[in-house]
């Protein structure tokens, strides 16, 4: 039910969405997934940090804490798609590979940080985490 409502009501923000089947922790599968073909939010920001810190983590927390439904979001930073898996708990932060993603080459914030680093001969490192 939540997957269908999400797919119907959130296309204005995320883009074209379809409900799909996901594997649940108990080994069964269920039509509790939403596949976002090309997330407008990620595509416009072009930033892993913005995606993770202002969308993925807060949305997962909201659904778990306020709706009582576990949610795992799996953004794909190559094609800007995103898989929502309702009923699946997200991994612990230390095990979440999304949190280890480097900045995108096209990220405007990372590009600016690289420019500053070149003029000051310093190491940019990775974007700061919120």
Automatic annotation (TrEMBL):
<dbReference type="GO" id="GO:0005506">
    <property type="term" value="F:iron ion binding"/>
</dbReference>
<feature type="domain" description="Beta-carotene isomerase D27-like C-terminal">
    <location>
        <begin position="12"/>
        <end position="94"/>
    </location>
</feature>
<dbReference type="InterPro" id="IPR025114">
    <property type="entry name" value="D27-like_C"/>
</dbReference>
<dbReference type="Pfam" id="PF13225">
    <property type="entry name" value="D27-like_C"/>
</dbReference>
<protein>
    <recommendedName>
        <fullName>Beta-carotene isomerase D27-like C-terminal domain-containing protein</fullName>
    </recommendedName>
</protein>
<dbReference type="InterPro" id="IPR038938">
    <property type="entry name" value="D27-like"/>
</dbReference>
<feature type="signal peptide">
    <location>
        <begin position="1"/>
        <end position="21"/>
    </location>
</feature>
<keyword id="KW-0732">Signal</keyword>
């Amino acid at each position: 039910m939540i997957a269908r409502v999400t797919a119907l009501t959130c296309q204005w923000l995320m883009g074209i969405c379809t409900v799909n089947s996901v594997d649940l922790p108990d080994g069964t599968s269920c039509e509790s997934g939403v596949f976002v073909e090309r997330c407008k939010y990620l595509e416009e920001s072009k930033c892993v940090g913005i995606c993770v810190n202002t969308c993925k983590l807060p949305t997962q927390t909201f659904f778990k804490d306020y709706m009582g439904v576990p949610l795992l979001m799996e953004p794909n930073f190559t094609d800007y798609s995103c898989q929502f898996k309702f009923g699946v708990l997200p991994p612990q932060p230390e095990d979440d590979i999304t949190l280890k993603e480097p900045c995108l080459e096209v990220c405007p914030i990372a590009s600016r940080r690289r420019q500053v680093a070149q003029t000051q001969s310093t190491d940019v490192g990775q974007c700061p985490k919120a």
